[in-house]
Design goal:
About 30% of the residues lie in helices and about 25% in strands. It is of the alpha+beta class and about 575 residues long. The chain is elongated and about 95 Å long. The protein starts with a helix and ends in a 16-residue tail after the last helix.
Amino acid sequence: MDRTAWIVVALCVIGLVVWEVYLAKQMAHRPAPAGATPTQVSPSAAPTIFGPSPSTTPVVEATPGAHEPAPSFAEKLETLRNSDLELHLTNRGGGIKEAVLLRQIAEKDQRVVLNSNQTTPIGAIIEQPATPALAEFTPSAVSDSVVQFERTTDEQLRIRKKFQFQKSSEEKDNYVIEMNVDLENRSDKPYQNGGYFVALGSAAPIHPKDYPSFTRLVWCIDGRAKGIDVGWFGSSGGILGLGQRAARPYFEQTLGGAEWVAVSNQFFTTLMAPLTAKATGVWGRHFDIERAPDQKLLGIEGALGMPGFQLQPGQTYSARFEIYAGPKLYHSLAQLPHNEAEVMDFGMFKIVCQFLLNFMNLLNSWLHDYGLAILALTTIIKLTLWPIQNKANRSMRQMAALSPKMQELREKYKDDPTRMNQEVMKLYKQYGINPVGGCLPMMIQIPIFFGLFKMLGQAVELRNARFLWVKDLSQPDTVAHLPVLGWPVNIIPLCMAATQIWLMAMTPKTGDPTQRRIAMFMPLIFLFICYNFAAALALYYTAQNLFSILQFYQNKRQPVPTLEKVAPQRKR
């Protein structure tokens, strides 16, 4: 290869290495600086009503449980349960301590549990999220489907909270909880509150290989989701000194009115939508999770801010909240009325992701195997694009036949690039060849590939879905580790790279030689991208390569296209 080709290849390799290093740093432990004390703006100027008076100095330490004072009363738990979800509700703050997903299995055959029992309970009403003070509530089971918490403050403000499952006609995927809050002023003085926070609980990676960018704090304004991931809190050295920043202990932002706020990991979310007024603020912090002595992951906890209120003696303030605590099932989230499906974070490929996810689930309902559903999806996509690919293959073969004439022009006008390009374009026109004809199928497949990349990264349906030797299609298909380096051996991505090399070897040699040499490194680039991603994505791309190879063999049996000059069109 010439010098330019080597430079491009070197830059690609450096970029991939930097990307892997960045991901490794995201996974690693990042302690907050001991001296950092950011300014905390209290949402309320009124006396504390939801708990004991908290400290005015925010706690910077991110370890769960370290920011809460030791309770002076015994914890009491109540349980609400349906066929999908079991809630453990605590009298500490009157909220959901844990949400156990009865149909979702985590590692070691344990059920998935949302919210760490060491973080603030979901639905707890607090004044200062950085220093939550959880008051004692009196729990009572109103019925088998309703749990109530009650507390009266020293200011004679009675707080009553009710939790119940939302009624649904569906037999499964019922993860919606209703939380009703009533505050009655029983004193003879008016009461005014400048605002308060409602805790969202926490989210953390389920699997050690989950990408940290999926552990996020998300909010939705006017149907559009925004958010930050756990990487936002970490320090950064920047690039050549630019963009350098210190670690940030917590995040806080005033909002113009959010429809919902959520904490989310790769496959599950706890999402809260206020029904009586939109959220006016969002708060979050990260914390460390020690899975093993040498393995630490990052979780995130959050809270949404609510507008203030005032009560005259005898008046009652009521607030209603809808909580979704469960897997990120698109069909369930899309049925909720506040754009909750936006938590999926499909981005600019939203329409493609939605179609592919729904189509994959439809195929699985027929085949009862997600591996077969992905292969069927690949087959249908490939058959749909088959006629377009045939035209592209013919165009590439014509370009290959024209290659000697193009080489002559390059040699003749090598000192005049402008004239050379003009003559090459004139040559294309003389023989009626579209130089970008071979690129059309690739342009169509780009949104499909990235749509699958985004969709398969969050498709909770693929969790624990087996296919051949793959135990979980949502994770890499690791079968072993190299003895010395400890690198995982993932079979399907290696097959993907091998089939891509095979496919490129069959492709007619067209275009600039330097570009062809650079293109030979595409399998390496895709291998880096997909190696530690979901096995489902590598399975799709491997099957697609095999179909493309089959199509090239079929096209090779056709007669070699002959070069014929087209008659010039007469001007009218």
